Amino acid sequence: MKNIIEVKGLRKKFGLETVIKDVTFHVKQGEIFGLLGPSGSGKTTIIKILTGELAKTAGEVSVLDFSSKEFRTSYFRSNIGILSDNSALYERLTVNDNLKLFCKLYNTPIDRINGMLREVQLEETREKVVSKLSKGMKQRILLAKALIHKPDLIFLDEPTSALDPASADHIHKGLQKLNEEGTTIFLTTHNMEEATL
């Protein structure tokens, strides 16, 4: 299997503070890769660099054979899914309208919405306005949004942090199934239990 992510000597500075120092790793295609560490250790910063949200200070980074200079292109973004602390939904729209919008953005068939809502166990919320949902429900809709276009690679930053144990278990099983179908998963967590799933 080829490397789908390659990181060599990655550094990131904010002003005079170095928050990422000489990080090197690779992720193989089809792998579930867990980046484990306590809160504040730089996990989210690494994801933001790998998805083009932040620029690196130094080092070499490539994702899906794209260099970091290409991370902001729509073609790169159409091949990845992201669930992070910056992921958002349109609060005044229904769940269905949110997912329809993301289908249009990703040029994805709208009929995929049914399957995604089933996967995250929220079929009954289809016509509910997002602002009326609990934090855990919103997290599951954000996961559906990140997966709706069947990306080759998905970045998950603490994906089950707002979920009850039963919902988290269902999401873990869904991610394992997704991985078995060929999607590479890059997961950050501070939860040792989650990292071993």
Structural description of this entry:
The strands form two sheets. Strands 2-1-4-5 form a four-stranded antiparallel beta sheet, covered by helices on one side. The longest helix is centred in the last third of the chain and has 16 residues, at 165-180. With 197 residues, the chain is of the alpha/beta class. It starts with a strand and ends with a helix. The protein has helices spanning 43-50, 74-77, 95-105, 112-119, 135-147, 165-180, 192-195; strands spanning 3-14, 17-28, 32-36, 58-63, 66-67, 80-83, 153-157, 184-189. The chain is built from seven helices and eight strands. Helix 4 (112-119) crosses helix 5 (135-147). The radius of gyration is 17 Å and the shape is globular. The protein has a single domain (3-189), classed as 3-Layer(aba) Sandwich (Rossmann fold), CATH 3.40.50.300.
Summarize the structure.
The chain is α/β, with parallel strands linked by helices and 197 residues long. 32% of the residues lie in helices and 26% in strands. The protein is globular and about 45 Å long.
Keywords:
alpha/beta; Rossmann fold; four-stranded antiparallel beta sheet; four-stranded parallel beta sheet; 7 helices; globular
H/E topology pattern? EEEHEEHEHHHEHEH
Question: Shape from CA axes?
Answer: globular
CATH topology, anyone? Answer: Rossmann fold
Radius of gyration: 17 Å
What is the mean pLDDT?
89
**CATH superfamily caption:** P-loop containing nucleotide triphosphate hydrolases
Number of strands: 8
Largest sheet entry: 4 strands, antiparallel
CATH architecture: 3-Layer(aba) Sandwich
Helix content: 25-40%
Q: Number of DSSP helices?
A: 7
**Roughly how many Å apart are the termini?**
22 Å
- The number of domains is 1
- Low-confidence segments, ≥5 residues, pLDDT <50? none
Structural class: alpha/beta
